[in-house]
Amino acid sequence: MGHPYIPNTREIREQMLREIGVASIDELFADIPHQIRLKRKLKLPPAMSELEVKRHVQAILAKNKPFTQMLSFLGGGVWPHHVPAHVRSLVQRSEFLTSYTPYQPEASQGMLQALFEYQSMIAELVGLEVANSSMYDWATALGEAALMCARVTGRQKFIVPKLISKDRLSVLRNYASGPGLEVVEVGYDRRTGQLDLRQLRAELGGDVAGVYIENPSYLGFLETQGDEIAAAAHKTGALFVVGVNPISLGLFKAPGAYGADIVVGEGQPLGNPVSFGGPSLGIFACRDELKLMRQLPGRLIGATTTLDDKARGYCMVLQTREQHIRRERATSSICTNEALCAVAAAIYLASLGPRGLCNLAELCASNASYAMKKLNTIKGLRSPIFDAPHFNEFTLNCDDTRVLSIQKLNAGLLKRGIQGGKPLREEFPELGKTALLCTTELHSREDIDRLASALKELLGERR
User: Fold this and answer.
1) Between 331 and which of 18, 320, 384, 459 could a Cys-Cys bridge form, CB atoms 3.0 to 4.6 Å apart?
2) What radius of gyration do the chain's Cα atoms show?
């Protein structure tokens, strides 16, 4: 008996099998080894009505504890920020929702204009001339940047700092494995966290396609040697790639100003919710050079005028990733990208303006500064562990306490309605019992004081 909304009747299945030239479902899946096949029927619950399904799913969802229902200091690549109501309202308009990735682009002039504005603001923000209309997330943007460096230079080595997200590094290595690109990690100064320039220069040579740093770094501190790293990379003919949290650029120098050839980053904090970690928004920009632009992944939206110069129009001026156009010469396989998230980012940035973005960045940084000073006064805690300027994320170490692990500490905080930082021991064992914490404009001084009081209580220092 077929489902009324799913074409799975026996007659239809048999017709499909005949069409592809097999006699049965078993023959269709004959290449799957028998030893890994399930030897029984699926243990599915009995059918439920729509109302029962709704109640069942609600009961499952009720087990979650989203950050909106507690005080959260968790960051690590996705950060909690205030998303204004008008941003949510505008991106939900049908004009954007139904044309979020326009395959017949010139028919969607409003969407193209919004993406053109997004590109323009990102380019201005990062200090480069060209930005595409978004990637999946920071990690995939980094992977695409490494491949782009290899295509442009004809080289096969890509250098990254050791202190980057292991998730991003894993995605990068997956991207690099196909074309055989070698990913090399460079160490850091144990006191400051800064990239080891001596080791970097030793690794640099005629086989290096690109050098990558993050500013702010994954652990929150700023890499203050940007100019020197750029000069070292360019001296050997390598491209210089910088990863950013775009909010920080309201306060700090744009990467293009200290020599970046390519900038990638995470656009989630620009008007997009945390939403259980996705979807995200990959930022990608490069210098205005033909050899770079022609190798840029994704799409570029341009503005033009009619032949009589009376009307302005928008179009896709470059679709370097489109397999249906460029086939094997496509620069990437990105397909349905995060264009709706890019529209949200455009609305958010346009609403804030330069002064608003600067104020937001200052508030995030000042909250982090206050938190580090406050937590550093608690006996046994050290924050941050690196002697360097920080933006809105910072490290907290508890090696000098009797706490068994950051996980144990976080469990105690959760009982008090506080979500602590991300444990780092699995990613960086040499850092000991260290967590990565985050502050944004959503945190008040009272929130930070509450965190400090809870930690004092957990560590046995009652007032």
Assistant:
1) 320
2) 25
| CA 217/CA 377 separation, integer angstroms | 24
φ, ψ for residue 319, nearest 5 deg: -125, 65
- pLDDT value for 91: 92
Condensed to tens digits (0 to 9), the pLDDT of residues 282-341 reads: 999 999 988 898 899 888 899 988 888 888 889 888 775 555 566 667 777 776 667 899
User: Is residue 334 assigned to a domain?
Assistant: yes
CA pair distance 344, 90, nearest whole angstrom: 8
Task: Identify whether the C-beta of residue 358 lies closer than 8 Å to the C-beta of residue 346.
Answer: no
**Alpha carbon separation from 222 to 216, 399, 443 (Å, rounded):** 5, 24, 21
CA dihedral 45, 49, 50, 53 (to 10 degrees): -30
Residue 438's domain comprises: 70-78+354-458
Cβ 275 vs Cβ 112: under 8 Å: no
The CATH number of the domain holding residue 373 is 3.90.1150.10
- In the chain, the number of structural domains is 2
Rounded CA-CA distance 30/252 in Å is 58
pLDDT at 463 (0 to 100): 41
Q: Among all chains, which residue has been given the structure tokens 């910072």? A: 394
What are the pLDDT digits (tens) for 126-154?
999 999 988 999 999 999 999 999 999 99
- In Å, the largest CA–CA distance within the chain is 78
Q: In the prediction, which pLDDT does 462 show? A: 42
